[in-house]
Design a protein that fits this description.
Strand order of the largest sheet: 4-3-2-1-5-6-7
Strand content: 5-15%
Number of strands: 7
Radius of gyration: 20 Å
Number of helices: 12
CATH architecture of the domain at 8-21 and 91-142 and 157-290: 3-Layer(aba) Sandwich
Distance between the termini: 11 Å
CATH class of the domain at 8-21 and 91-142 and 157-290: Alpha Beta
Largest sheet: 7 strands, mixed
Shape: globular
């Protein structure tokens, strides 16, 4: 018999500079920390000492927590509450787009799920009320070690560039986040492709650049036919960001790069709708062939 057809589409977003302007930079600015010094001096210095970029920023955050330090006795609850402020900076049109996509797939009796995979701080993302209520899972970096009298002390989870792909496979295999939290090894469990919840062909991944390249590559390659979409921002023609955008486009990592404008009539919003409609059409055809 032909393999069963998955009835679910996954739209997966990075968070920082994809859904909102960089949330960590917003956190630093809120606490009157010099963001330019943080990103242009302190962070590169640790990277030159062979820190992974994600671990480097997490260490810098922990170094700034404590009595008399810029972040004070920062807690996860405070990060969560700050996330509601970050939500106000969300790029335009995301909420109506999500609602529209749900309606589009429902007409064809197809399910759609939304996910966040971020190298940013998970508690800040969770503080976004809309994301928390409409997304199936949020994967991000975690800090721990706070007590009644002291702030965060330890790195609980760091999501590096390639670590992001772990969560793509968890989505692919249908591993619930609470199960993954109990056992990180669950993702290595062998599940036959025909039994997996969401094939990579049914995935759309949206991210803002070099940190998302491993996910772009997993979603679309010689075997997988998912849709990777790049996010770009307005920079000077000679900026390093522009060079990275061109590199991503030239290498065929993404279907296209768009400004983070999700509202009706925007290039990005329209392309996401088209991608969802195309996957829906393919699923409908596959179902008819089986029956």
């Amino acid at each position: 018999m032909p393999d069963p057809v998955s009835n679910t589409i996954a739209v997966i977003f990075d968070y920082d500079d994809t859904i909102v302007p960089d949330s960590l930079t917003q956190l630093l600015a809120y606490h009157s920390i010099d963001t330019k010094k943080f990103w242009k001096q302190e962070w590169p210095k640790l990277i030159r000492q062979q820190y992974d970029p994600t671990h480097a920023y997490l260490r810098l955050i922990l170094d700034k927590i404590g009595t008399g330090r810029p972040l004070g006795q920062l807690t996860n609850n405070e990060l969560f509450e700050f996330g509601s402020q970050v939500e106000k900076t969300q790029y335009p049109g995301l909420e109506p787009l999500i609602k529209d996509l749900k309606k589009r797939v429902a007409k064809r009796q197809i399910n759609i799920e939304f996910y966040i995979i971020s190298s940013g701080l998970e508690e800040i993302v969770r503080g976004n009320n809309f994301i928390r209520e409409n997304f199936s899972a949020i994967y991000g970096c975690r800090l721990a070690g706070e007590t009644a009298t002291s702030g965060l002390k330890y790195i609980k989870r760091a999501i590096t560039f390639t670590e992001k792909t772990r969560f793509l496979f968890e989505i692919n295999k249908g591993i619930p986040q609470n199960v993954s939290d109990r056992s990180a090894m669950e993702v290595n469990k062998k599940i036959e492709k025909k039994e997996r919840k969401i094939p990579f062909d049914n995935m759309i991944y949206i991210g803002d650049g070099l940190t998302d390249i491993p996910c772009f590559s997993v979603v679309k390659n010689e075997q997988n036919k998912g849709v990777p979409i790049g996010i770009k921002h307005r920079h000077g023609r000679k900026s390093e960001k522009i060079k990275s955008y061109l590199e991503i486009l030239k290498s065929g990592r993404v279907e296209g790069m768009y400004y983070p404008e999700y509202n009706r009539g925007s290039d990005l919003g329209d392309f996401i709708k088209l991608a969802v409609d195309t996957i829906c059409g393919n699923l409908v055809i596959q179902k008819k062939l089986i029956h």
